[in-house]
Structures are given as C-alpha cells and as structure tokens.
Amino acid sequence: MSSQRQPVATASSYYAHQHHPHHHQHPHHHPSLALHPPHPAAFSPAPPSVYHDPAALASLAYRPLQLPLQHATHQQQTASSEQTQLPLAAQAAGPYQHPSFRQHHSNNNNHHHQLSHRSRAQARQRQLSAMAYQQPPTPASPDDELAQLQKLSEAYEPETTGPLVGQRQPSTAITTEYASADPVYQAKTAALPQKYSHYRTVRGDGKCGWRAVAFGYFEALIHHGDPDRFAMEEARLRSMMNVMVEAGFQAMMIEEFAEETISLLRKVAEAIPLGTAEDALSEAFNDQMTQDYIITHIRTITAAWMKTHDENYAPWLLGQTVDQYCNQSVLPMAAEIDHVGLVALKDALLSPAGMSLEVLYLDRSEGSEVTMHRFDPVNAGGYTIGSVRLLYRPGHYDLLYKPEDLPAPPPPPAATAVPTYLQYGSSHDPVYDLGVSDFMTSIPGMSYANLSQPGWMSSSYASGVDFLNTPAPVQACTQALPTPSAPAPQPQISSQPVYVPASTPSQMVPPPTQMPHELAIRTSVAQPSLAHNDFQHQLSIGPFRASAWQYEPDFVSATSQMPFQTSIFRNSHFNTAHFLNPEFQPEQWDPDDEYATATSSTSSKGSRHKTNG
Amino acid sequence: MSSNKRLMKELGEITASPPEGCTITPPTEDMFIWDVTMEGPTDSVYAGGKYHIQIVLPKEYPFKPPVLSFKTKIYHPNVSNDERGAMCLGMLKAEEWKPPNKISEVLKLVRAVLAAPQPDDAVETGIAEQFKNDRKSFDKVAKEWVGKYAK
C-alpha cells in the first residue's frame, strides 16, 4: 500500500508497454519480456530518476518516430542486460501483475502508434485498480474484502504530529486547505471566516474532543477575566468530588486529577494580570502529562455526572447502560468523545460555569455554511460568560473563535504602528488579528486615519455619533495596549474619545474634548503602505476645510447640483443645463454623478476618490 | 513527578491492605517495578501455588497501563507460556486502560482470572481449546505445573 511504489509501477508498466514493439521485432523474443522494461531507467526504484534520466527522456521524446538508431540501442541494451535484469524486473513488476495486465499488452500491440496516448491512460487506470486490490491480492468474497479493509482501517493510526494544542490562527487557513476540495467544502470553508475569524488546531490523537473542550473552558475563563469566577470554578470543581464519590469513584484516586485542573486554574488566574494567561494555558496543555491529568479529570467528571444523572442520558444510549457507556466511551484513555459524552461534558463542566457550547459541523451535508449546533447553558439564569466553539470535521474536533472571543489585540507591530484612535470598542478589535486593518482603514470614517488636519471630520460625523451611542467596551482595548504614557483604564471614559498611544507618542495630539461628537485627531508618521492615500490626498489641499465647496472644482461641479437644487432652479434659465442659459451645457448622465447626487456628502467623497484615484 | 506521587500513594495503600492472597515486596531501587507474590485461589487448580508476578509501570503511569508478567510458569489460557509470562487482560490494554484504575484492582482481577480462566480471550489457544474440550487433562497438567514450578 505504500504510496512510494506507485510511480515505480507506473513507470515500469509504462515502459513495458511503450517498448513492446521492440520485443516483437526481436528475433528471439520471449513472452516474459513483455513485462520486462528494456530501458535501465525503468528499473530504478526511485521514480524521480526515471524522469530525470536524459536517456529516458530521450526515449520518451522520440518514441513515436521509432528511429532505427534507437532500435539498435534498445535492442542492444535489452540483450546485454536481459539476464541480469530479469529478476529485478520481476521484482519490480511482480506485485503489480494485475490479471488483465498482460492481456492489455498483447491486445494493444498492433495499435501501438495510434493508441499510445490512450493506452497510457489505460495503463494508468489499470495501475490504479491494481493498487486498490493489491493488499488482498484477490479477495475471495466481498465479505472477506470488507474484513480485510476493516482490518486495515483498524490498524491505521492517524498521524499524530503537531502540537497538542496549536496556536490560534486565522480561519482563512481552513479555506485555503479546502481550496481544491469539492464545491460543498469550498463553499462552507469560504463562508467560515466571515463568522469565525480564528481557529486553533488540536492534535487528532483520539482525545481531541476532550482536549478542545477543556482548553476552551480555560480560555473562556481567561477571556471573561474575572478572578472571582476562577475562585468559583475552583470551588465548584472541588465540590464535584462529591459527585464523583457518589458515582463510585475513589476520592483518593481521582483527587490528583482534580488537583491538576485546579492548580492550572490558579496558575492561569495569577497570570491574567501579567497578560501571560494564554501562554501559561498553552504551555500546560502542550505538556503531555499535565493535559493527561486534566483530560482524565474531565472524563471522570463526565462519567460521574452521567452516572448520577443517568435518567438524562440513558435514553440516548442505544442498548447500553450508562455504566457500560462510561466504561467504553468516556473513561478509557483512548475513548473519543461522542455526542452523548459531549452533551454530558457540557452539562457537567461548561453549563454550570455559564458557558455555551457550539459545534460547527463541517461535512458534505447540504448548505453553504457549516452547520451549527448550539448547546446553551441551562442554568445561571441564561447568563453566559463565554462560549466554547468546536469545529467538527468527521472524527476530529478543533477550536473555533468568533471575533468576540478573542482577547484584546496586542499592540500593533512597530513597523505598521501609528498612533491609533479606536473609535469603537471591542467589536472592531479583531481588525488587527484579521490582518485587514489596511482594508478597514480605507473605509471612510471606519477606524483610525492618519490625519493631521480635521478635514475628514464632516465625513466621519455619522460614525462619530454611532460611536457615542455604542456602549464601547473600550476598557479592554486600553488594557491591551499599555504603554508608559497610557492613561489608566477608566470606565467613565467610555463616552469619551479614547486615546490609544503607540510608538510615536511625541506626535500625538490630545483628543479634543470640547465637542462631544468630535473625534480624536491623531498624528502619524506617514505610512503610505497603510492605504491612507485617499486621506492624504484629501489632506494635501489645505489645513482646514470648512465645507465641501473647497474641494476641487470637479468635485464641486459633481456635487453642486445636488444639495441646493430645487425644481424651480432646475427649470429656470439660471441652470446651465437650461437651454436659455448663456453658458448652456447639456446635462450628461454619468454613473459617478448619479452616485454623488444620490446620497450625502460621505458618498460624494467616495465618488471624488474615484475621480482622483 | 506526579506519577511518583500516585505510585507512592498506591504503594502505601497496597502495602497497608494488600488484595487477598497477594504480598507486595516494596520496590527498592526502581519505583516502577513491583514484585508481587500471589497465591493460587484455593478453589482452583492453582491452589497451593505461589506465583511471582512482576508489575512494570510505564513512566506515563497512570495514563498508560501497567504491564504484568508471570515470572513463575503457569498453565493457563490467559498467560503466555514463555519467559515473558504476559497476561492478557482487557483492562490492561492501552486503549481500554482507565487512569483511575488501581493496581490493587488489577491484582484482584488477575486472581479472579486465575480462578476462572477466560478461554475465549486467550493468548494460548492450545491451552484454551484443552480447557474447553478436555477439562480433565487441562486440570491435570495445570496441577502438575503447580507442583513443578509454583512451590
């Protein structure tokens, strides 16, 4: 079944076929030579050498011409190496002797020239079918074959490399991964990053579901960030010991598993003020021993919960008692989580902590988006402190994140750092993580812009109002961007422009505070790469722009007809479009003008950009 | 480290109250190798025999199962008839092992299997066949082996 063999087989069969006419012309042709590749290159066990061997390439290139010189060469080679190469040839071609293999050659001998291309494809096809049947050479019956395949599938051990829990990465990687998959996967993975911006791989060693939920549980606590919540969870997990003892576990045996989870809770809680909580968590979960303890702990919690609430789960276990199910599918080291176990784990671990669980099914089912199954917390008065989101691909779980699950962004890297004024709260934080900040800033009024003049104010006015109406959990932002000059996070500033310092504090201009709707003005080193060209262009006109009438003439003419035009004016001879006007200019319809006149000055600015850009 | 803690805990417990018919010799050098002497169950053909069982604990214990081997030869369908004397128990398979399992529970199970061999889950199929079809000969050989090797 080794995939390395395939190219060799292809090569040898290909050569055997291709050079067949030589053998027919050979006076002492022996039938066994039909399978005997005459060219030495065909014997090479390493496929690349076949393709890199100039002689082999030459024979490929000249094959249809059947040059006499080549005949001679090949015959000579064949004759001289016949004796020594035959065993090798048999060895090379041996496993691939499909029943129809030989027949194929004799059938196509006479049509070699016409069929060379087609027969190559045929040979390939046969090769594939030979490969498929190779392991059980000739299965006696479908049952045997199935049994064989079953055996192979059981013996198969998936590749379990990579970190136990990987780094969070943009979920566009999943889209890329499935770019060449079938359309269903393509569509679903293409839509995925719109809702779930990030994901994290979990090693597929059979424990991925357990590990993913456990990791997500800690991560949700970190994201929530409340030290009291950690203390509550510690107390709750300790009290779960009673449930486990009630379920028949020996306290002595399980408390060390619980201790590991609890000590990680403490460790992470202590690391939160230092900002290293995620690192501590990642480190713990990538330590085989530590995560084994934690996974065993949550397995035990799950089993204990199921055993003490068996009326909730027994109906879902087909033909199994809860005890049997726990012994087979929850507690063993190698037991993968299945649906009932997942529900029980959620009930025992996540729901009491106020966390919801979402499972996103990425499979070949109908639809253009991943199918979401949401398990809401059943208690805590519907109060949710966070979500654990799992991406399920048949047989495997990874972690998914929505933008709101992400921690506040780290300070932007120095290269692209600009003094940044965040108009919005956390809803736009992920701009950084998404790597689309350039794109975002190019939207007028959307986010920060490197202004040294207030010329964009009017266009951003609308969004400024939005900003004021947004509760704006800006605290998280300011926490995440601590610099010496940063003011301490103050909840009361949430209705004020929040100044986020960055790498060039000396250039910063304090945010104006006189007018509540005024937006903070920032300075910046010029960063042409940040797609601020539009703004810069706009700003190059002058230090202050009172109205749209100070824009370039073409802009004014494009927009001038709009705001002050009444039907009376338009139909009078004062309108240059009126035929009685001495400077009569016929009106010409232009999509840009249409756009400009259709809406407010914000969009007219957009049209201006179009004209200028 | 944590594994050692667990081992010490279990060792303390098992020495204080060993499972019936078992004597644990405290490990001296290697904490991960335990020597157990198990008496054959009185109501079985192994009655009167004393079996030396070595338990090798993996470094990953309790996340990987311990490995049991009979150092004393025993005629039993579930114990391999070679130097290893490996015992095949479901709960000791890596994929079925549960970390909360304890060694004392394992030893209890071993003793139960001595009392009641499981020929359908055998390592020695020949002995299992004999056990199923010719119980008398099986009992005879087993008793002989007790006298020969397990006294």
Automatic annotation (TrEMBL), chain A:
SUPFAM superfamilies: Cysteine proteinases. It comes from the Eukaryota. Pfam families: Peptidase_C65 (PF10275). Residues 1-10 have a biased composition (Polar residues). Its EC number is 3.4.19.12. Residues 37-48 have a biased composition (Pro residues). Gene3D superfamilies: Peptidase C65 Otubain, subdomain 1, Peptidase C65 Otubain, subdomain 2. It catalyses: Thiol-dependent hydrolysis of ester, thioester, amide, peptide and isopeptide bonds formed by the C-terminal Gly of ubiquitin (a 76-residue protein attached to proteins as an intracellular targeting signal). Residues 1-48, 90-145, 481-510, 583-613 are annotated as: Disordered. Keywords: Hydrolase, Protease, Thiol protease, Ubl conjugation pathway. This is ubiquitinyl hydrolase 1. Residues 17-31, 101-123 have a biased composition (Basic residues). It is an enzyme of class 3 (hydrolase). Coiled coil: none annotated. Residues 197-403 form the OTU domain.
UniProtKB/TrEMBL annotation, chain B:
InterPro entries: UBC, UBQ-conjugating_enzyme/RWD. It comes from the Eukaryota. SMART domains: UBCc (SM00212). Residues 2-151 form the UBC core domain. Signal peptide: none annotated. PANTHER family: UBIQUITIN-CONJUGATING ENZYME E2 (PTHR24068). This is UBC core domain-containing protein.
